[in-house]
Amino acid sequence: MRLSYQKRILLTAIIMVTALVLVMAALWFPLVKRDVKIMDAIFVIDITDSMNVKDVELDGKKVSRLEWSKEFARRTLLEMPCGAHAGLAIFSEARSLILMNPVEVCSSYHDLTQMLEQFNPYMAWARSSEVSKAVYTAIRQAKKIDPKPTIVMFTDGHESPPINPTLFPKFAGTPGEIHGILVGVGGDELLPIPKTNDKGVIEGVWGVNEVMHEDVYASMRADKDVNPNKPRTEHLSSQKKSHLATLANRVGFAFVSSPKDPLDLVDTIRDESNTREQTIDYDLYAWFSGAALLLILLVFLPYRWFVRIDD
Amino acid sequence: MFELSWAHPIFFYCLPLALLPWIFQNTTKKIAWQGFIPKDSLSGVLFVLSKLAASVAMICLILTLADPYVPEQIVERTRQGAEFVILLDRSRSMDDQFARPPRNTLQRYTGVKHSKREVSRDYLTEFVKRRPDDRFGYVFFSTKATEILKLTYNKDAVLATINAGGLGRGISQTDIFKALSLAVNMYKDEPYRGSRNILLISDGGQILSTEQKQYLQDVFKKMRLNLYWIYLRSMRGMTLDPSDNDNLLWIDMPERKLHKAFKTLGVPYQAFEAGSLDEFAQAIDEIHKQQSQPLIVEERVPKQHHHDLFLWLALLSLFPLMLSRVITVWGVKRAAHKH
């Protein structure tokens, strides 16, 4: 394609006028309304003793499941879009205790992380760890919060005392009424559980004779078919994936085992949540100035490398 | 002071593009002989200026795309206000009904019954909302005390924490001394900014030992702490101060003992007995008058974008450039018509 000198001059002038108009638009074009999808979530962190097992890796270092959960929750908060809300809760004994209702993540990021930092085994008010019931209480409390948050629970799924595989703790709610995700933490190998004293300091590990190895129902029965002889391993802990999957299924939650990337977790939260549309004012200046820049570039590109230019 | 940060520094790689106008020229015209061109130093200057304008415009637009901003800053200002550490009782007794009628009265259904926890949440929310300039910390305690929220100005976070305190059920028993010591420790790590207060919300009393009392007395005085207690009565009619028509059962209540102990600490102390929210609101305003001390507050200045500056520069350099091009078109047209 060849352009005559006159045409080139004319085109350049047109481009310059357009670029100028675009820059003016970038400066003065009014803000447009745009809807973004935001979510509300409550991060529940398991602070029971089994979470002190050091069998997870964080940036190449072996850390405890609790430390990993706290850090991963923090990174997830960081990846959540501004406008999204997040709250915090801890789980010990048989309950989830909500400590902060959902707040906007960007403006309250500092306070959320400060609170997350405080989570430690000392806060536990009892030494048992009944995961299923904790999930149920979290659901019950989430119903009272408006808008209803999605529960994101970091746990290894270790039930202590153990539960009977057929007599599961009864879930009174409707599955799927509250959305949620169980985030499985911990390795596959059975490892001894550090034992904390009432000051939250680790003192040795739980011994084989210090924990219940049968659920309450089976332990009271003598018959062999209810109470088969099986290895006593409840003083050891690993990530109980199949239990967490069953539990998630029962309450209509999703189950994610040891996620790698906080961004993926944010995506899962978004998929699982009832997202709300929030209207934000969006400035189009970047598009206008980008277009203006491209137009000006057009004038100065080295066309003679590709086409012959006469005149 | 004026430190710019860039949201998308990757655009800096585009900056060399601004050299293009100095290397390539697509609007030149080949002419047979140089001698045809009149010597004109002004057009030489204009030639350089137009290239400069094009470069400046491109640089400015690239910098606009890189999104310059001044990050969120914290500015210290002096205001009238105070610092509060809220000590919330999360023990099981807080789940009980607030101000239940004495056992010897007839049971009458009188509408919704509120637990003490719910009442405490309403009072605290009112408290925080009425004191916009104050800084709050939050501790919950039962048999153990845990600092949940460090002292912060963020009202959203404080209110969300208070609201969460109204959810669910209590966890254990009460140890007020531990909670008070923790609150004291929270202030120990902080520079003195202004009036320091501890706000205790509890339904239970406790008998303090002599050593505990001595410790509190020393440390409260040394650190200039003020103590407030929002008392949530379990029984209707029960007061912290003895009155004439006292029920015999109330005389030795631990609440009264604790109240008496607090009074003898020799530090500013005030108890609010939760009754009506309006009365409470008045009492809060009263605190406000007492605590009208200057307090150094930190204010957050949100992130500010500064791309407008570069857009203006781009506009200023583009305008003469555009004019020169339009004039060129006009000139070339006129020259063509002459032939």
TrEMBL record, chain A:
Lipid metabolism in keyword set: no
VWFA domain sequence ranges: 40-186
Keyword Coiled coil: no
Transmembrane segments: 9-29, 284-306
InterPro entries assigned to the protein according to its UniProt record, in alphabetical order: VWF_A, vWFA_dom_sf
UniProt keywords, alphabetically: Membrane, Transmembrane, Transmembrane helix
One matching Pfam family: VWA_2
UniProt-recorded name of the protein: MxaL protein
UniProt lineage: Bacteria, Pseudomonadati, Pseudomonadota, Gammaproteobacteria, Thiotrichales
UniProtKB/TrEMBL annotation, chain B:
Top-level taxon in the UniProt lineage: Bacteria
Residue ranges of domain VWFA in the record: 83-287
Pfam families: VWA_2
Transmembrane segments: 6-24, 45-66, 309-332
Keyword Transmembrane helix among record annotations: yes
SMART domains, per the entry: VWA (SM00327)
Xref: SUPFAM superfamilies: vWA-like
The entry's keywords: Cell membrane, Membrane, Transmembrane, Transmembrane helix
Protein name: MxaC protein
Species assigned in the record: Methylophaga sulfidovorans
